[in-house]
Design a protein that fits this description.
alpha/beta, binds 6-O-phosphono-beta-D-fructofuranose, 15 strands, 11 helices, seven-stranded mixed β-sheet, 36% helix, elongated
């Protein structure tokens, strides 16, 4: 493959600490080392469809390493195969605008597209590659749920924020003898709740991968109170399944690549604990605090390594690949492999086992109910 004359770069999906460090690394490596200009595309695939893009100046990337967010902007909408257009009567019409997007790429002279995004963006990247576009992916998500890479950037920052929030909640929980429920992000995977909960010393962690029972959660909270610890910290992932199997969905929006907006399980869990134990409960939804602000040093380094590797791959003429961390090295993996499955928490994962060893409960500790489900 020949080297590209121009590289297009976009960030897609939810933002994430470290995106700017990737932008900086791609722009500097491509321009500085290979003399290939990088065109920044605004607001992800939406900006690509609308043709909103401009060449990045080497100097404007100077202070990006520690900045949160993305200087290019991003959106959860704009999938070229599921694109929200205004309908005739003001309603939204979902359309396939992929042909127009391909035209835009040609018109702008973008020989390679570097897509920085999560699962949804990698699916779009793979479809574009299937239509002949040279694409290099960079894995991003605080949820850490991309299977092909050991870890994504943004995750470490989110875990640090959760851990600090639990530290703060613990002192007020213990002063007031309350059960504090903290709801954290994690749509399909409980990595943030697991790692953040362990780091913060949560007593109970509820994640999508380990079905929980109310009776088990109540029992642990009551046992702690009986042993003199009249407070508990319950860390719940937004995507954890209720005992009846349901998720708590806050809203749906068909314009989004993934229509469902999760949120609200913390309130459900807190209410049920208050009813089931008579202990005072409060709920904190950490929400977008987990995505905003400055990345940790770990995420800055990982994002930089990913950005350098993506620029190198693009300048080599690679296509249809995503850069991934495997062990200590960054390697290109086929996009098809990257989108084949999500990386969820194996219920017997060493961190789950370590958590159990230090007394963390996952709400699955009781034997199955023999009372027709009354204790659920
Ligand atoms: O995928 C990352 C993520 O932070 C999820 O954990 C969360 O469900 C989602 O994004 C929230 O998206 P939005 O900012 O669009 O509400």
């Amino acid at each position: 493959m020949t080297a590209p004359r121009r590289i297009g770069l976009l960030t897609g999906g939810g933002d994430c600490p470290g995106l700017n460090a990737v932008i900086r690394a791609v722009a500097r490596t491509a321009r500085g080392r290979h003399g290939v200009p990088v065109v920044g595309i605004e607001d992800g695939f939406e900006g690509l469809y609308e043709g909103r893009m401009r060449e990045l100046d080497y100097n404007e990337t100077a202070t990006l390493i520690g900045e949160g967010g993305t200087m290019l902007g991003t959106t959860n909408k704009g999938d070229p195969w599921h694109y929200p257009l205004p309908g005739e009567n003001g309603e939204v019409r979902i359309a396939d605008v992929s042909d127009r997007v391909l035209e835009r790429i040609r018109e702008a002279g973008l020989d390679t597209l570097v897509v920085v995004g999560g699962d949804g963006s990698m699916h779009i990247a793979a479809r574009l590659a299937g239509r002949g576009v040279r694409v290099v992916g960079v894995p991003k998500t605080i949820d850490n749920d991309l299977a092909a890479t050991d870890v994504t950037f943004g995750f470490d920052t989110a875990v640090s924020i959760v851990s600090e929030a639990i530290d703060r909640l613990t002192t007020t929980a213990s002063s007031h003898h309350r059960v504090m429920v903290i709801e954290v992000m994690g749509r399909y995977a409980g990595w943030i709740a697991l790692a953040g909960g362990v780091a913060g010393g949560a007593d109970t962690i509820l994640i999508p991968e380990i079905p929980f029972r109310w009776a088990s959660v109540f029992r642990h909270v009551r046992e702690r109170a009986r042993r003199g610890r009249r407070y508990s910290i319950v860390c719940v992932a937004e995507g954890a399944k209720l005992p009846d199997g349901g998720e708590v969905v806050k809203a749906t929006d068909e314009r989004r690549t993934d229509a469902r907006q999760l949120g609200g399980i913390g309130e459900v869990v807190a209410t049920r604990i208050a009813q089931g134990t008579d202990l005072e409960t409060r709920v904190t939804v950490l929400g977008h605090l987990q995505r905003g602000g400055t990345p940790t040093a770990h995420d800055r380094i990982l994002a930089t390594r990913f950005g350098v590797a993506a620029a190198e791959a693009a300048c080599r003429g690679d296509s249809g690949v995503m850069v991934a961390l495997r062990g200590t090295g960054i390697v290109p993996v086929p996009l098809q492999e990257a989108i084949a499955s999500l990386r969820t928490v194996p219920p017997a994962h060493p961190l789950v086992q370590a958590a159990r060893a230090v007394g963390v409960r996952f709400g699955d500790e009781m034997p199955p109910a023999t009372d027709g489900g009354a204790s659920r």
